[in-house]
Amino acid sequence: QVQLVESGGGLVQPGGSLRLSCAASGSGFSINAMGWYRQAPGKQRELVAHITSGGSPNYADSVKGRFTISRENAKDTVYLQMNSLKPEDTAVYYCNALQNRFGVVYDYWGQGTQVTVSS
What we know:
Elements: E1 3-7, E2 10-12, E3 18-25, E4 34-39, E5 46-51, E6 57-59, E7 67-72, E8 77-82, E9 91-101, E10 104-109, E11 113-117
Parallel strand pairs: 2-11
Antiparallel strand pairs: 1-3, 3-8, 4-5, 4-9, 5-6, 7-8, 9-10, 9-11
């Protein structure tokens, strides 16, 4: 069983920056892709960015050029650097990790961290 612990959310003014972190523990097996999703009030959860174990990133169009995802495989930790934040980035951000164990893919989620962009 994998536990994901997120940190780094908070309140920031438009144009500001935040860095989210998510550490996985209890894995025992290699973590494959890791990523960040977000869910704003009244909206569906959406992919923000994800990154493979090899370090290949993928971003939602709405955050390209502003957000950067990275990971430290040795620590099973993924980061999301968020710059030039906009009010529409306000949401609960969830960390996600995929783990392949003997051909079965397991999907894990963090508890979520609130990001609020407001003046």
